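In this notebook, the sequence line spells out the residues, with the fold written below as integer tokens. This is how one looks.
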Amino acid sequence: MSQSILILAAHPDDEVLGCGGTIAKLADQGAIVHVAFLADGVFSRVGDAVAQQKEVHVRRAAAKKACDILRVKSVSFGEFSDNRMDTVALLDITKVLEELIAEHKPEVVFTHHAGDVNIDHRCIHEAVVTACRPQRGHPVKTLLCFEVPSSTEWQLPGSAPVFAPNWFVDISDTIERKLAALDAYATELRDWPHPRSLQGVDHLARWRGATVGVDAAEAFMLGRQLA
């Protein structure tokens, strides 16, 4: 039976920024990868309701294109408001995640790091920890947290837990697909030297790879693993 993987991300593009190369690698190895976005990623921005709704459609189309490049099996979109997930009860977010876990029965979950600047990232992390409580019969055996350029590294020292990776995935063979998937989100990208630029993402992967002796890598913090 193929391994089921679930990516729980706040906004479309977080999945590629955080673990796009790993998604592609796992899919190539036969894993069934599902991606779930919880927030719209748009409504906190300036603009009227009509323009915002149009942008939601554009961003969701970009997400589907990016996930096709990475060979993701399924993509789902939540309805939480962008950058307002802290106004929602943790229980309500957790229930949505529990439904996704019950549907896909993932052995591995990838999600946000607890110390990100973005509030939606932090809320999802907390809800994932709750939804993945290690109870008898729970499908999730491995819980990994990824970094998101322009959020994880922007947190101030002492303000939140530091992202200190202890799990690395060699994406030397899939870095180009990660960048191609990221290019599907062209409107979300910035010019170099912004960390959320194609060059910035590529440089980060090369640096993470250099720290473990490969051409390119993605870094994670292992939350829990049951062997």
